[in-house]
Design goal:
- The protein has three domains: about 160 residues, Molybdenum Cofactor Biosythetic Enzyme, Chain A, CATH 3.40.980.10; about 80 residues, Alpha-Beta Plaits (2-Layer Sandwich); about 150 residues, Maf protein (Alpha-Beta Complex).
- It contains 16 helices and 17 strands.
- The strands form four sheets. The protein has a six-stranded mixed beta sheet, sandwiched between helices. The protein has a five-stranded mixed beta sheet with strand order 14-13-15-16-17, with helices on both faces.
- A hairpin with a 2-residue loop joins strand 10 and strand 11.
- Helix 3 packs across helix 4 and helix 11 packs parallel to helix 16.
- The protein is elongated and about 80 Å long.
Length: about 400
Amino acid sequence: MIGEIIAIGDELISGRTENTTSVFAARHLFAAGHDIYAMHTIGDNPPLIGEVLKRALKRVDFILVTGGLGSTTDDLTTEAVAEALDRAPVLYPEILERIRKHLGGNQQANNLEKMAWLPEGAEILNKKAKMAGYLLVHDSVPVFFLPGVPYQMRELLLEHVLPKLAGWSGNHHRVKQRTYKTFGLPETVINQRLLELEKRESIHIGYYPVGCEVHVSLTVLEENRQAAEEKFIAADHAITQALGDFLYGTDQDTMASVVGDLLRSRHKMLSVAESCTGGMIGKRITEVAGSSSWFAGGAIAYSNQLKEILLDVDHQLLNNYGAVSEQVARAMAARLANKVKSDISVSVTGIAGPDGGSEEKPVGTVYIGLYHDNQVSVRLYHFSGNREQIRNSTTCTALDTIRRAMMTH
């Protein structure tokens, strides 16, 4: 099915709040096999809300609207929709009762009564939830209205909107979809490797740079279930072969979660010694649930003094070679592993800029060290971009260094 996403809120168009809900919705709708015709971000402007909604109703199979469902005076979505679609507001007693029960019938409950008035014909998405959210079918097009609060919107989208769309009348296509996550290959090279696959019938390939990675989407759309399955298996094999060891995972995998799975399966413990990344590697790792089973911890030794105190890096090494050097990267990895008795340790030291570079060591110069099997290896990198990009590239490369080391053992 083809859909349209409309995000509503003055805070979005002013830049005070980032519109994360539309991105989340688009990603999950695409993963479910739906195409997005357009995405809009508009303010709390009733005439504009009505105009955008009526235009969308004429060209797509479903619409997702987020924001403006609250109780304050600037939450105008429901009133705007009722007027634009000529649907009288109707009081939904079950919503009002839920509000009063939750708030104990105090004055705030009376203020929230606004949320119990919905356009005629609205279907509440979750009658037990404390959040707003409803479905309105207009001219046979389902229009889903979800709250702008990210965690509320995500819950309703995943648990109610996607299941309803999957079984919607007329949606008879069989869709198979997968996202492949790569690191280390430019988008243009990946594109060249998959050109022949793009020519196959019923197959769509998409390329999406995400930070320092490139993600590749595979969508197979067929009316016949068996045909969809067979084409998907063949395409999946072709993509896996073409991407080789630059492919680190699929769908919900992250580089850190894949590294964790490899370490856990080999009963290894990891430690990290960070300088220029300032804790970014540790942050990525600890975002993975259960990382304590394979991550011992890390040290952010930003200054030379802390490199000496926390990591036992020799003062003479720092004086003779400088903090950004192969010798110091080697010492950082080995000394931390020895201190915490970890099986594998990665270190990073470099110049993220915009200042601090020299002709000998320009901005973007980074050394990544790896202690593994009682040996230390160090590799020099020259990353480009601004400070954030250099730090992100360093973080991704450090994690990939661990991944590749685990894959060879």
